[in-house]
Amino acid sequence: MSETSPKLRAELEGIPTYKPGKPAATGGPVAYKLSSNENPYPPLPGVLERVTALAASFNRYPDLACSGLVEELSQRFGVPASHIATGTGSVGVAQQLVQSTAGPGDEVIYAWRSFEAYPIITQISGATAVQVPLTAGDVHDLDAMADAITERTRLIFVCNPNNPTGTVVRRAELERFLDRVPGDVLVVLDEAYREFIRDAEVPDGVTLYRERPNVCVLRTFSKAYGLAGLRVGFAIAHEPVAAALRKTAVPFGVSQIAQEAAIASLQAEDELLGRVGSLVCERNRVVEGLHAQGWTVPETQANFVWLRLGEQTVAFAAACERAGVVIRPFPGEGVRVTIGENEANDIFLKVAEGFRKEL
Ligand SMILES: *Cc1c(COP(=O)(O)O)cnc(C)c1O
User: What is the mean pLDDT of residues 160-184?
Assistant: First the structure.
């Protein structure tokens, strides 16, 4: 055997591997997974039937252009079909966006802490990440992000609501920020949790995209629509960004099953958004419960809550696990807890209550 090994790109050194939410423990009495912001509801029967029927033809490649889904989305949002680009989850589309805009010597700005995929996809592209700390209230610091723009900036992510803190930026401040961004810098509004927002002051990114050619909106079927396991998301962007996304897509990345499940989900939107409504009620119940226990939590508009626990983070996650729920710890910072089944939320609240008393 040769002593040498294949030469890999230096940019890959030190890339953190994406950490999936821990699976629910097996073997215990009850186990709930509140670590990945998934939708706790099982697939709708109609969507499941569609998927099952399609399984009989997976010897065929899917529709490369995702035409049916693109057409459905184009009507749904009132945007030209050429402005829609699909991908393997919105993370896949986010990676294509970075690949399309930034390479070595270029800069990608995003808040920190924010979505874990941003540093990974930035580093893979060879571009330099510029991380702008959240404010003390765990909100995007848009002024500081605008200040961080240089001649090398190519792309800026704004995660609204922010993962993992659940906090939002509102219309006036976002518009003020966009006014400061040069027209040749792409702003990506990552709206993975858009359907969970109940604050009317949070703008729909699609309205901002309409007037601004450098704004791109990212959406996903993974959260509100419950299709996380099928991997389908999309961007709404003007040309030439949308065209670049079609060039950088992995051919046939979105399976026919995913495409049709997404179409069926859009057609069953009322029912799915009803489920989102129930999750929002649960979110409010959990947040009120935490407040009653004496916790301070940043206002969340997503399907999760953020508890800033600092050094207690790992101990808290372990206590949750012993009680039957797995959550997502960010050691030294805090925990992100998905709003799940009512019983799971109750277990989390109970652990939080016990923990609070010992602080
Ligand atoms: C979950 C999530 C996504 C979506 O991921 P998919 O690849 O579509 O499953 C994108 N952005 C953020 C901030 C998320 O939390």
Answer: 98
Which atom of ligand 1 lies at the shortest distance from residue 93's CA? 7
Does the beta carbon of 91 sit less than 6 angstroms from any atom of ligand 1? Answer: yes
Contact in structure between 238 and 213 (CB atoms under 8 Å): yes
Residues 6 or more apart in contact with residue 51 via CB below 8 angstroms: 43, 230, 257, 260, 261
Beta pairing partners, 326: 33
Ligand 1 atom with the smallest distance to the CA of 220 is 8
Q: How far is the CA of 345 from the centre of ligand 1 (A)?
A: 22
CA-114 nearest atom, ligand 1: 13
Q: Which helix (H) or strand (E) holds 219?
A: strand 215-220
Q: What is the pLDDT of residues 2-31, one digit of tens each?
A: 789 999 999 899 888 777 777 776 666 568
Alpha-carbon distances, residue 128 vs 38, 103, 174 (angstroms): 30, 8, 24
Report whether residue 164 contacts ligand 1, using a CB cutoff of 6 Å.
no
Residue 277 in tokens: 């409504």
Ligand 1 touching residue 115 (CB < 6 A): yes
Q: Does residue 226 have its Cβ closer than 6 Å to ligand 1? A: no
Exposed, middle or buried: residue 168 (CB in 10 Å: 0-12, 13-18, 19+)? buried
Look at residue 124 in the predicted model and tell me its pLDDT: 96
DSSP 117-180: HHHHHHHHHTPEEEEEE--TTS---HHHHHHT--TTEEEEEEESSPTTT-----HHHHHHHHHH
Whether ligand 1 lies within 6 angstroms of the CB of 88 is answered as: no
Q: Checking DSSP bridges between strand 84-87 and strand 233-236, what pairing results, if any?
A: antiparallel
Give the SS3 label for residue 238: coil
Answer whether residue 306 shows pLDDT above 60.
yes
Residue 136: name the closest of 287, 302, 331, 308 by CA.
Answer: 308
Using the atom order of ligand 1, give the atom closest to the CA of residue 88: 7
Residue of 223, 230, 305 to test ligand 1 pocket, by largest number of atoms within 8 Å of CB: 223
